[in-house]
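Technical annex B. To support the medicinal chemistry partners, we prepared a structural model of the target in complex with S-adenosylmethionine, based solely on the information shown next.
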Amino acid sequence: MDELRDALRQGSLSPERRHLTHNPGVAGNPGTFAPGELVLLLDPDGKRFLVRLAEQDALHHHRGAVRHADIIGRAEGALVRSSQGRVFAAVRPRLVDYVLEMPRKSGIVYPKDAAHLLGWADIAPGQRVLESGVGSGALTLALLRAVGERGHVVGYELRSDFIDLTLGNVHAFGGALAGNLLVRERDIYAGLVDGDLDRVVLDLPEPWRVLPHLPGALCPGGWVAAYTPSIIQASQFIEAVRADRRYVQVETHEVLLRGWHLQGLAVRPEHEMVGHTGFVSVARLIAEPWEPGKPRRPT
Ligand SMILES: C[S@@+](CC[C@H](N)C(=O)[O-])C[C@H]1O[C@@H](n2cnc3c(N)ncnc32)[C@H](O)[C@@H]1O
């Protein structure tokens, strides 16, 4: 693992190690549960327990122990009983189940925002995406899944402890990613050492400081996206994008996700929702500066 982490950080992957571990147990794979896999145990009250299967381990629930050995070898969706007869459904975790449970030391891009960012920055299989900073790796995981086996994600991160955390989280979730990850310990404000980029995705305090480095590294037609917790940062980013005169399709969004409680006649929005996470800003690089007109007023 240490050797792989060093190789990933330095960008010296041997061809046979370029792909992240492929977990045979990703959702959609009909195989049975195997030791070492992540499993999500759901109890009848909707509580969720994320466990990594090991022959000798058990989940200790207040309604009895669930032995991993009773899950290993079973098909996804199997029901297992605790020592006190409590029933649990065993399924493979979604990426969002994992991201919300995984170890983190930074703020993360929440799944609702990551999904939106993937759509609005048009991130797709086969692309080469630069991400900075990588933090805990939540967005890295979403990007890796989106670019797929033929794509690449290159991360620039200042802090080595965050690089270790991200690599650990990416490898712990493993399989469905099937992409290539390279993380460089670098200050992105100092410039880029990678080129031929289809997309650049920023989650750091001053994303506008990256803009001068993009022409020549980000392909014309490519998108830059910035995730910022404060609207002041979003505004400063957008002003810098406009001043650069080389961007089109400039937009900033906030994503509000409201769950609904649907049970019999009790059909209403959930009482609680996440009030604020961050803003997603996107812009698209063109080949040379131009004179865009003033944004149109709504009629
Ligand atoms: C909010 S965290 C990113 C979280 C990440 N997007 C996730 O979903 O887990 C911001 C990260 O940017 C890194 N960072 C800040 N300034 C940087 C710079 N100039 N170059 C590279 N990384 C930087 C920080 O060390 C931190 O890890």
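Notes passed to the chemistry partners:
The first strand starts at residue 38 and ends at 42.
The pocket of S-adenosylmethionine is lined by residues 106-109, 132-139, 156-159, 162, 187-189, 203-205 (CB under 6 Å).
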